[in-house]
Automatic annotation (TrEMBL):
<dbReference type="InterPro" id="IPR051257">
    <property type="entry name" value="Diverse_CBS-Domain"/>
</dbReference>
<feature type="domain" description="CBS">
    <location>
        <begin position="8"/>
        <end position="66"/>
    </location>
</feature>
<feature type="domain" description="CBS">
    <location>
        <begin position="73"/>
        <end position="130"/>
    </location>
</feature>
<dbReference type="InterPro" id="IPR046342">
    <property type="entry name" value="CBS_dom_sf"/>
</dbReference>
<dbReference type="InterPro" id="IPR000644">
    <property type="entry name" value="CBS_dom"/>
</dbReference>
<dbReference type="Pfam" id="PF00571">
    <property type="entry name" value="CBS"/>
</dbReference>
<protein>
    <recommendedName>
        <fullName>CBS domain-containing protein</fullName>
    </recommendedName>
</protein>
<keyword id="KW-0129">CBS domain</keyword>
Amino acid sequence: MTTAAEIMHTGARWIPATETLDRAAQLMRRLDVGALPVSDSDERLCGMLTDRDIVVGCVAHGHDPSHMTAGDLSKGTPRWIESTADVGTVLEEMQTHRIRRLPVIENKRLVGIISEADLAQHLSDQQRARFMEGVYA
């Protein structure tokens, strides 16, 4: 059984909800990622922030990214998966909630993130087709 820990990208980093969006964008550039998990003051997942969120939710509205925070754009209930979850559970979570990136948690700490590309490498052709239809339909 392949687990979330075996397919995740390691080295994922939190960004505090209090961090400004310009700093978030700089961290995304440095890490070469398009999304960051957002943490509250207790280092608990409270949302996800994407590069698209910054552009559409801040810049396109004429707001200053040095004055808006990651917490300003984080909304909804964040989804995550335990590192011991099997690939089928990862697939179901991402498909059900139509998400493309899934933080991986172990002992209440962020240990990685699974992208749709990471997941796709571990699916059968039939599972991959069902996933793409569920997330992109």
